[in-house]
Write a structure and sequence with these properties.
With about 400 residues, the protein is an alpha/beta fold. It has helices at about 20-25, 45-55, 75-85, 100-105, 120-130, 150-160, 190-205, 210-215, 230, 245-255, 280-300, 310-335, 340-365, 375-380, 385-390, and strands at about 10, 35-40, 65-70, 90-95, 140, 170-175, 225-230, 235-240, 260-270, 370. It is built from 15 helices and 10 strands. Strands 1-9-6-7-5-2-3-4 form an 8-stranded mixed sheet, sandwiched between helices.
Amino acid sequence: MDFQQGLITTIHEYGITKDLINELNKGLKNRPTAILIPCLYEEFERPALKSIKEVLKNLNGLNELVIALSAKSKEQVKLAKSFFESMPFPVHLQWTNSPSVIELLKSQEKNGLELLGTPGKGWAVWQGIGVATRKSEVVALFDADIRTFSSLYPSKMILPLLDDSYGISYVKAFYSRLSLETNELQGRATRLFVGPLLDSLEQLVGKGPFLQYLQSFRYPLAGEFAFTKDLAMNLRIPCDWGLEIGLLSEVYRNVRTSKIAQVDLGLFDHKHKTIGSSSKDGLQRMCTEILSSVLRGLMEHQAETLTNTKLSTLEVLYKRVGEDRVKQFGLDSAINKIPYDRHEEELSVQKFAKLLRPATENFLRSPATQQLPSWSRVLSCEKRLQEDLAISGSKDIVFK
């Protein structure tokens, strides 16, 4: 592992410390902290969430665990509630799509607030932030499908935020995405789309501040992050697959880069998406929405817009950079004796390249996107909405 630093403070994994759970438990006494896990009910039927629960049981002093659950029935919510009954700290199960929640959020249309976001992680994160920041000053978010979850994950994500002297407001994870079964490289959206895209845009429009900022993150699509309450309350939340890039754009808008850190979590594995048969599904849909989020950030922070001429150049640049990356990953895999299907990777680059023109043209026709308003904006006109949301998320069913 290297020890390099750059625009964003990097906390490395040197392989020396195997367990920081005692230090984390001490630190949790200093600042009320919540962990937020957005999830579908289906995750309760898979082994990853059970492993996550067993790790989190070792936390003493966690202020609250917030589960932002999308479920189809009261029976599913009951089972999810019983799943977490043995935890040694308070657990708030927020049924994000319950009838009472839908009714409450729809009622805010009278205030000009559009709070019924597209069902998905973004909407769950927005609700979870609202619930978690009622009582906690630090919030850490983890997905429910992480198969390699260990005590180092919450420790390294949360500890930088528990000591005010570090001056950190936002922590984002990075890691090595490898399949547990085959050791193959995963993370194609990051490796073969976002990486080459950002490199190509830098060549095309120059090393502007926002692009340099995005390039400083070793895994910009990492879905694991933590933040202080004052930052969390001021973030607009995207409702599509552009969530991670969109949040990075919001963080850039709200805090100095000196208040941001990225943390190496080591080996990481979770569910893998297929490439998809069209731009409407799989990784192709994800990358289409990620591209829109990147282009919107360029507009907001660098006042850059792609013309037709620039778009043609971007297509050529992206394909060349993407093909170069495939060769680099091939060599990396060969020396480390891990499987690598160069042909399949080349095909992925070709499919991603074909997304650039239609996705960009569609974005330019309608660059505005649905973002859920920040909680500071919401509370400015409806002061009790956090409490009302927490109540509504758990009142449609009586738990024992």
